[in-house]
Amino acid sequence: MGFVIRRNTKIPAKASRSCTDSGHTSAIFEIYEGERTDVRKNRYLGDLCVDGLTPAPPRQRMLTFTLNIDNNGILTATAEEKISNIIKEVKVNYTRGDRSEFEIKNSLLDAVENRKMDEKLEKFIKIKEKVYVYLESFLYNLDKKNLSEKYQSIQLFCQEIMNDLWDMEVDQKNRLKDLYVEAKIKCNAIAERHHFDYVPELDI
């Protein structure tokens, strides 16, 4: 999750964020309005699905996501992948003035009161992302080098962790660190032995 257009930005406004992804042939960008790091606390506006992306190793393909708000307050989301020049666009039925002053003030107060909690959550999410990206790249190499059968138990271990990661909450930080240590012990030696590509350092 990342903020694209910040509160109090004058319109018309346009801002972009670039990110790497899992290398699959499709990607979904969800769009929210709000101040909280936890998107579940924000207001869902819509999503943009991009299909037909160029297959690539994990985190080796760049996508650019752009939000544009025109003078009428109409929000347009655009996603672009430069390798194959794929551009997808969606207009979101949204007007900046459709929330009451009471709703806006409550939203801002909620963000201020929960700032420390959101800071902790942001750090926790970054750790989860590091572990996920590491395991994702590790599994990609197992498949690419035809090692999945040889290391089937490790493969299942990695898949189970990846499935569990996104449901983990901040109060499970110690469990996440334990999984990180276990993953590092089980996977690093294999990655080095078989000269895996695109596997980042797993250091949290």
UniProtKB/TrEMBL annotation:
InterPro entries, sorted: HSP70_peptide-bd_sf, Hsp_70_fam
Tagged with keyword Transport: no
Keyword terms, alphabetized: ATP-binding, Nucleotide-binding
Keyword Membrane: no
A GO MF term: ATP binding
Similarity section: Belongs to the heat shock protein 70 family.
Name this polypeptide is given: Heat shock protein 70
Protein source organism: Zophobas morio
